Amino acid sequence: MDLDAPVLVTGATGYVASWIVRYLLEDGRTVRGTVRNPDKTSGLEHLTALAEAHPGRLTLHKADLLDLGSYDEAMAGCELVIHTASPFLLGKVRDPERQLVRPALEGTRNVLASVNATPSVKRVVLTSSVVAIHGDNVDMKGRGAFTEDDWNTTSSADHQPYPYSKTVAEKAAWEICGEQNRWDMVTIHPGLVLGPSLTTASKSGSMTTMRAFTDFTLAGGAPDLAMGMVDVRDVARAHISAGFTPDAHGRYITNARSITMLQIGKILRKRFGRTYPFPYNKVPKAAFKLVAPVAGYTREFVDKNVGWPLEFDNSRSRSELGLAYRKAEDTIGDHFQQMIDDGIARRRPLS
Ligand code: NAP
């Protein structure tokens, strides 16, 4: 890998990608970031600031996942392509095929068609997810922690559409990669990514999740829902390590630990006190099931996920990518502090 060759990062505006861009620049690399609309007046401020801090080493290029060939120009001369662009929407999604599956699957195909058409590319790092490893928490019944050998076999466009979008996109990517031998691919599988955001414009499910701790959504309590969790800074480092470690190969679960919304609330309460609407109580599964559709969850989702444990084996990422995961207290605390600094977190009125 030529360290002077530019690195392409797709979806550069995004929550995860912004940290990848920042670390690449701090490491001395030259970066080409793709964005859907480089002329928009807000949402690019953090990238503009990074470009100013690293003169001549960050350029933004217009590209859309649904436009075949739109990545060709930005990719020319790159040896490493980090493909993060893909919508991450939680809760009720009106049209899963259009909003999630198509951009994830067709977008991955289009980006890899550009890779096939660009002779300089040697490696692709694809942002997948733990949700391409498993579908519902109940899938762990009777077995141990999920590993990179596991695939999500239970999601569909109707049930768990976001996990489905990530699974079909990653499968397609491995198929396309397997049809040639000029470039190789490494996939990164984060749990829910938390930690400070460089932008307030992201619509990522990570932001929706953390906002629920301040907009009173969870003031009455939270269901016992376990999920994977990892710091955005560690996820960014994982992508870069996967890109530049010659022996890196295959899939890497990139997850610090499992956590529930109540545990996140407890961590937040310890650092920020009781004047924010953090959840205290566990909402019983039966009660949550009744109100779930209003909160954007199906009753099938509640049945198959609430109350079930969830574990992932992250040993490959530690031994082969050299990751040392941050503590949840730092990830969650730093994220919430940044929401306070950005004026997003609201205090509960004192009674
Ligand atoms: P994000 O902030 O919403 O970023 C998503 C990016 O995708 C944005 O830059 C967006 O560009 C781009 N995008 C969406 N639709 C597009 C289209 N049609 N054409 C071009 N670009 C498009 O979300 P994120 O959390 O950073 O997610 C980034 C990646 O990490 C995704 O692949 C996601 O599946 C994966 N991931 C995230 C998490 C997590 O917890 N956040 C966990 C596991 C995996 P615009 O600015 O133009 O909208």
Q: What fraction of residues sit in β-strands?
A: 5-15%
Question: What is the CATH superfamily classification of the domain at 7-191 and 230-256 and 311-325?
Answer: NAD(P)-binding Rossmann-like Domain
**Percent in helix:** 25-40%
What is the CA-atom radius of gyration, in angstroms?
A: 20 Å
Pfam families: Epimerase (PF01370)
GO molecular function, one term: oxidoreductase activity, acting on the CH-OH group of donors, NAD or NADP as acceptor
Domain NAD-dependent epimerase/dehydratase: 7-242
InterPro entries: Epimerase_deHydtase, NAD(P)-bd_dom_sf, NAD(P)_dehydrat-like
Keywords summarizing the entry:
single chain, 351 residues, alpha/beta, Rossmann fold, seven-stranded parallel beta sheet, 12 helices, 12 strands, binds NADP nicotinamide-adenine-dinucleotide phosphate, oxidoreductase
